[in-house]
Structures are given as C-alpha cells and as structure tokens.
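Now for today's protein.

===
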Amino acid sequence: MAGIGGEDLAVVVEGVVKIYESRGERIVALREVSLSVARGEVLAIMGPSGSGKTTLLNIIAGVDRPNAGRVIVDGFEVSSAGGEELRRFRLERVGYVFQQHNLIPTLTALENILLPMALAGKANRLRGQELLRRVGLGGKERRYPEELSGGEQQRLAVAVALANDPPIIVADEPTGELDIATGERIVRILLEEAHSRGKTVVLTTHDPRVARMADRVAVIEDGRLRGVYSPSRIAGATGFGEVEAEKAVEAVMRRILDDAERRLREAEDRFRRGEVGIDALVETYTRVKALREAVREELSRLGITG
C-alpha cells in the first residue's frame, strides 16, 4: 500500500501461492497474491465462489499455509511459524468470525466467549458480559446457540472472535446467510472495532453492499488479485490503470451475478424434487434478488453500463 511505512502495516502478503492436490488433481487456489492492510483499516476481499478469497483469509489467519510466499501479520511471520507458535498466534492475535459461526452448541452464549479466554489463561466473566452487550446480546448470557436467531448467532460469533482482544479480525462471508438489515448490523460492529478501537479487519464477501462499507476492496478472480479499489472510486492500487481496474471489477461482478443465478436454479430444482420446501425456495429467491439488484447498482455506481 503506497505511502504507508512497514510499522503501520498490520498485514503483509507477498507473492503467496497455494496449491491443493486432490485425487491426483492439482488445483492452484492462489497465484502470487500480494497485498497489504494498514492498522485500523477494513479491507473487503471480493470475488465469486471458488476465486480463492477464503483460502487467502485462512492463510492470513494462520489456519492454512502457503506453498510459496510470505505472510506477516501484526509483526509475526505466519508463513514460517511452527505449530505451537501458530496456536498462540491464532489464540491471541487473530479473531476469526466463521461463516457457519463455529459455536459450541453445549455451551451458553457467555460460556462460548469465556472458552477462548480460558485457553489463553485470562478468563474474565465481566469482559464476556460486556462483549455480549457490545454486540447487542445483553441479557442473553444463558441462551444456547440453538435458542438464538441466525443474526444473533453471527453476532455471538463476533463476540467470541473478540474475546481475547486481538488486534486482527478476519471474517469469512459474515453476512452470507443473513438478511440485508441484519447483515449490515454485523458489518457495522466490525467497522466500529476498526475505526473506534484501532483493530484491523479483513473480510470476504460476494456482496457489493458489504464491500462498499469497507475502506478498500481487493478483487480476486481465479486465484489472482485483479485490483484494489476504494468504495468511492476505482483506483489502480496494484499497478492497474483505472481502465484495467474497471474491467477487472466488472468481470468479477458479473461472475458473482452468474453465481447467484446458478444458486437460484439449483434451489428451484431441489424444490421440484421435493428436497426443500417453499419457504426455503422463497428465502433463496429473496437473497438472490437483493444481490442481483446490489450488483447492478454497484456496476452503475462505478460507471459501468451494459
């Protein structure tokens, strides 16, 4: 990121390559990706399904290792760290908000927050209660995950990620299965952590409404970083000119739109086969319609027509 010294960078990714092998097939998930994120910044990683955005997030969080390249997070070289070092890093320096929440069903809301604190040797019941209030779950300390709505479970997942007060927060599709209003509330909680408390947030999304709330947006397609732009205008921050960056954004947006239409067709087929009910079909249709409108609005906002 031009103009920012190394001491001001929370995340540095240099030439990262990730290759998976499955049943003799070689899949290149990331192809020499390089980017940086400043302290206190919110970076949205945007791309269609299978683009490599979750793989990149997992590598930043120390959940997965790159085959090549370097990753430095909060001054710690994640890419070369050993097992115990990585465990402490994930426990103390990074809070991970998983798309499927990863809450423990047999623990109450408060107990889910206290668990990572206990593992770090600093359980603090009062802090756990304060975190619940911060995410709008005050008074629900004794509720089990199944007793919470989907939006409440995601807010609890955010509170769990914040348990040990990590400087870095990563979130994988934090609004993917939520309605627009609930999803926006989740993102605003993450924005507050960055802009009011100085934490660095890296999140993945396929939704331009979420990306628009970030400070910068990294566009990934087929494992390649296609460009970085600000929500207010396209900026060729990775060597792309504005025309090239615009083309990259347009291509990714249209693939996201294609993915949404495919999910709708799959839901319709499952409904016809009797595998899902009408409520599930309507929910999918509503989400896809909203995403379709958001993508078209974003293309129009960026001056891309046709």
Remarks:
- Residues 6-93+166-240 form a domain with the Rossmann fold fold (CATH 3.40.50.300).
- Residues 1-5, 234-243 have pLDDT under 50 and may be disordered.
- The beta strands are 9-22, 25-38, 42-46, 68-73, 76-77, 94-97, 168-172, 200-205, 216-221, 224-229.
- The CA atoms of residues 10 and 74 lie 5 Å apart.
